[in-house]
Amino acid sequence: MSLSHAQLRAFHAVAVHGSFTRAAERLCLSQPAVSDQVRKLEERFGVSLLRRSRRSMELTDVGERLLGITQRLFAAADEAEALLAGARDLQSGKLTLAVDSPMHVRRFIARFQARYPGVRFQLMTGNTDEALSRLFEHRADFAVLGRTVEDPRLLTVELSRAPLIAFVPADHAWARWRSIRLADLARAPLVLRERGSMTRQALEAELRAAGLALTPAIEAEGREAVFELVAAGLGVGIVSAAEAGHHPGMHRLAIEDSGHCMIETLVCLRQQSERRLVAGFLEVVREALAEPEG
């Protein structure tokens, strides 16, 4: 009983994108066509892959296991495509980067695109745990992590080291100061990233070590949301100095007794590192890091 590539592709798209509509858009097919392909796959093997309702869709146990297989299958197909594209001296292709913030990789992307203008980039944003998950699930070629990960499956390149800093709007009482201490943060309302954020974990660890506790905080998903809430006067923000960027109206504050250093690391799967696109990007990154910063 042979498998249909089209049926597997349709199932994979639905499972990854969470709906028949989005899957149809990505496959450039009609929604009924995608639905028909999945239905035929289920009927052919007498299994149920999806639980459908008016408002939601979820994978069955068999569907979850099949998704794990199709992720590897289509990652291999993408690898084959990348190999063939590499034979054309990187004139085309796509690199997907799972990042916490684009600012960690933008200079490397700019340098790579200047050399290989035909290669496209896709950036997927999320915290360190999400980025690592996307890499292992073959949904990203690279991940940028806010912590060091010891894993023999990974090839790693350290991008930067930077201390934690606080930031407040220009009309905040602290805007007259150059620095604060951890005890000041413990008494202030904070605007923090979600729990998977390495910045938040680092701050919480430092406060615990100093015998201090957090003041009840606003939790926001994503760095830009934190900046918006801080700008609105709803609390004090914490960020790595390397991620502070340029935000008009914000005042930065050193944290005098903070000893933590945020390390940003670029990683890829070691087994993927010889792919022409991946190897080319690694080469550009290493070149840029070897040069003195201007």
Model description:
By secondary structure, the chain is of the alpha/beta class. It contains ten helices and twelve strands. The strands form two sheets. Strands 3, 4, 5, 6, 7, 8, 9, 10, 11 and 12 form a ten-stranded mixed β-sheet that branches.
**Biggest sheet overview:** 10 strands, mixed
For the CA atoms, what is the radius of gyration? 23 Å
Counting helices, strands and paired strands, the structural category is alpha/beta
Proportion of residues in extended strands = 15-25%
Overall outline: globular
Keywords: DNA-binding, Transcription, Transcription regulation
Organism: Halomonas saccharevitans
Pfam family, one: LysR_substrate
Protein name: LysR substrate-binding domain-containing protein
Summarize the SSE layout with pairings.
Blueprint: H1 5-17, H2 20-27, H3 31-45, E1 50-52, E2 57-59, H4 61-86, E3 94-99, H5 106-115, E4 120-125, H6 128-136, E5 142-145, E6 154-169, E7 179-180, H7 182-187, E8 190-193, H8 198-209, E9 218-220, H9 223-231, E10 236-240, E11 250-255, E12 261-269, H10 276-290
Parallel strand pairs: 3-4, 3-5, 7-11, 8-9, 8-10
Antiparallel strand pairs: 1-2, 5-12, 6-10, 6-11, 6-12
Helix pairs in contact: 1-2, 1-3, 1-4, 2-3, 5-10
